[in-house]
Write a structure and sequence with these properties.
By secondary structure, this protein is mainly α. Helix content is about 65%, strand content about 0%. It contains five helices and no strands. Helix 2 packs across helix 5. The protein is elongated.
Length: about 80
């Protein structure tokens, strides 16, 4: 976002939850990646084996139960990484 970019330009430390979520989803050896593939299947992966966020979004947005499952799989690890940073 514009605020994040402004803070970074001012050399302020920024913890970006969306960036963390993206990193966790992109690690095929990580718990988040494994949970999401186990829950939603290989169809959410791109040709490189990494979760394709657009494909994942198409699966979960518009379905409350699937969105809830996504949140359950990701929020804990994201919060742990935020605390670590």
């Amino acid at each position: 976002s514009a605020v994040t970019n402004c803070l970074r330009a001012s050399q302020c430390p920024v913890v970006d939850a969306d960036e963390i979520a993206h990193q966790l989803q992109s690690d095929p050896c990580g718990v988040v990646h494994k949970r999401l593939v186990a829950r939603f299947g290989d169809d959410i992966k791109g040709p490189d084996g990494i979760i394709d966020r657009q494909k994942l979004g198409e699966v979960v947005f518009g379905d409350r139960e699937k969105l809830r499952a996504l949140n359950q799989a990701t929020h804990g690890p994201i919060l742990q990484e935020i605390a670590r940073q």
